Amino acid sequence: MATARATWEYRDRFGDGFGRTYFRRFGPGVVSSVGLGTYLGAPTDAVDEGYERALIAGLEGGCNVVDTAANYRCGRSERVVGRALGRADVERDAVVVATKGGFLPFDGDRPADPADYLRERFVEGGPVDPADLAASQHCIAPDLIDAMVDRSLDRLGVETIDCYYIHNPETQLRVRSRAAVYDQLEATFERLERRVAADDVGGYGVATWEAFRRPPEHDDHLSLPTVIDRARRAAETVGREECGFTAIQLPFNVVMADAFTTPAHEFEGDRRSALEVAHALGVDVFTSASLAQGDLSTELPASVDAELSGDTPAQRAINFARSAPGVTCALVGTSDPNHVAENVAAGTFDPLGARAFDAVFE
Among 28, 108, 134, 234, which is 20 to 30 Å from 42 by CA? Predict the structure, then answer.
């Protein structure tokens, strides 16, 4: 588990090489504001090798946040993260490791008949009730998430997952009401609160794509204040004084800035953005798609590009995500070792201040 002592020592080891706001508070410790993502890439040995080298370079170069998921690259990404943690010249408890559960994962490669595979492995005698499935492969029921925590612990080779996300819960809105999704989230949060109490999980949260960026009238909307309230109720139910809901993850970049610009959530008598609500409720924000899956690595909108610091478009795009008020860490894909140094070096430049960031949208 990441600890305050080890993460602060990591900051002392690398901090002089970065800008003054590169390391940011996360719980009792600190994290780099550029993190290592593991989403893209084929489920092959060659891609595994590239990821492993890239992750080690990032961990040994000043990034102490690694993000993955049970279903990324047919489960290979979690295993690669585990190998990199074991081989990098950093302490395990200096690194915040996050993963996700919700999409039923394959194991190593894509089976010839995916539907048959998922039915045999997860439904027939497994932890999934067919009534809890959405889109044939998504489930956030307590029993499934409990099993996925164990699977991720094993694949990652760690004793504790620092942040465990429920993955894209808005997928469930395809088959059930918003109220029913909140009820299921609360039941699963209760299970995760127990895993926090057992030190299997350091904290938990929700990783979304649409849910927190869209206004209430949108089909995929989920209320961030309601989700956090349900987590606090779950903590009370299991008798924990401190709620384990730690963070949210959502996409944020130059061309997907809804988390800052869209007043999507009813909060304290007003409509506010996801970033504003998360900050007010003391929840950390980790941004995904900081480079729009590579589209922003070569060119940015000219009006924004001119306001940002960095030697390359990729660095300036990363610094845009790091500049948003309330953002703790911007995640960047790391499948190519040759890009790691460039991405990490974005942190040697200071991001925009709050006023300058606001001015981008005026």
Answer: 134
pLDDT, tens digit, for every residue of 49-105?
999 999 999 999 999 999 999 999 999 999 999 999 999 999 999 999 999 999 999
Alpha-carbon span 168 to 93, nearest angstrom:
27
137 token code pair? 């492969």
Tokens at 317, concatenated: 């795009």
What's the CA gap between 160 and 66, in Å, rounded? 14
The residues, ordered by sequence, that sit 6+ positions from 131 with a Cβ below 8 Å of its Cβ are: none
Q: How many CB atoms lie within 10 A of CB 362?
A: 4
Whether the CB-CB separation of 237 and 196 falls below 8 Å is answered with: no
- Which of 58, 67, 68 shows the shortest CA–CA distance to 50? 58
* Distance separating alpha carbons of residues 261 and 197, to the nearest angstrom: 37
Give which of 42, 92, 96 is closest to 64, Cα–Cα. Answer: 96
Alpha-carbon span 22 to 290, nearest angstrom: 16
Distance CA 253, CA 324 (A): 9
Domain containing residue 307: CATH number: 3.20.20.100
Dist. CA 177–CA 53, nearest whole Å: 44
Q: Give, as one character, the DSSP assignment of residue 34.
A: E
160-216 per-position pLDDT tens digit: 999 999 999 999 999 999 999 999 999 999 999 999 999 999 999 999 999 999 999
Residues 6+ apart with CB under 8 A from 154: none
Number of domains, the chain: 1
Q: Determine the structural domain holding residue 349 and report its residue range.
A: 4-360
**What does DSSP assign to residue 56?**
H
CA distance 132 to 143: 11
